[in-house]
Amino acid sequence: MRPQWSPLWGLYWREIVRTFRNPFVLLITVVQPFMWLAFFGSSFSEAPASTLEGIFGASNYIQFLLPGVLSTSMLTVGMFGSMSTIQDKRFGFMKRILITPTSKGTVFLTKALGSASRGLVQFPVMVAAALVFGVPFHLSPLQWAAWVGALMLLAIGFCSLFLAITARATDWQTPGVVSNFITMPLMFSSAALFGAKYFPPWMVAISDVNPITFSALLGRSFVLGTTTHWVYLGYLAIFAGLMLAIGFVVSSRWLRVE
Question: What domain range includes position 102?
Fold first, then answer.
């Protein structure tokens, strides 16, 4: 059997190159979370520091919000990954790839890893924007690496989920419909935008198993200098591994090409 590592690397590199050859998609990928930080984060700019400390545990809401915005933006990355797959189907690229010894599972892996890598482009931009808004960073190299790793695991998990759901899809509208159905419940039932201590019990139950919460809380502990629960990184690794396995199986069996 021919090894799949060579086509895996080649197709992954194609995904990375496509990211930087499409400045519009790259711009949207960066600007969307920045707008969240600028507009939503500034909504509490005139609130007294004592009020912010009592509600968010931070004197600057943007400091609290940054890890959450970076975490929720990984949902959008998943949608772009599934749209890229549909584009490859509609323009015949997928058919040309699959007549070679490259497996459907390999195609899925390159899409998931490529989309997740694309999402990390937001990280340095958002950190730089937060510095402009007055957010200080006192992270160790280990904390920086763990934060990036957590976001990468979250992105891989959601990209795999979107790709599995849309494996048979050939309609451009499908990723958007799936995104609208998934994004809002996951975003607002997490601790990304607000602390879960004020949630009703049923939302707390969802937040406690929501991977966005794990990523947001881990990154927030680094930014705010609070106690870090490293187990969150393990939960995210389990989420990413499970979604990768499901997506690989689904794509291997049901990835459809027009």
Answer: 5-254
pTM: 0.87
Helix (H, G, I), strand (E, B) or coil at 14: helix
pLDDT, tens digit (0-9, with 9 covering 90-100), for 22-53 = 777 677 767 777 787 778 777 776 677 776 67
Chain Cα centroid distance, residue 144: 17
Q: CB neighbours of 100 closer than 8 A, spacing ≥ 6?
A: 7
Q: Residue 104: which residues within 8 A CB-CB, separation 6 or more?
A: 98, 251, 252, 255
73-113: pLDDT as tens digits = 888 887 777 778 888 887 788 888 888 888 888 888 988 99
**E runs forming strands in 110-215:** none
The answer for residues whose C-beta is within 8 angstroms of residue 135's C-beta and 6 or more apart is 60, 62, 63, 66, 223
Q: How many domains does the chain have?
A: 1
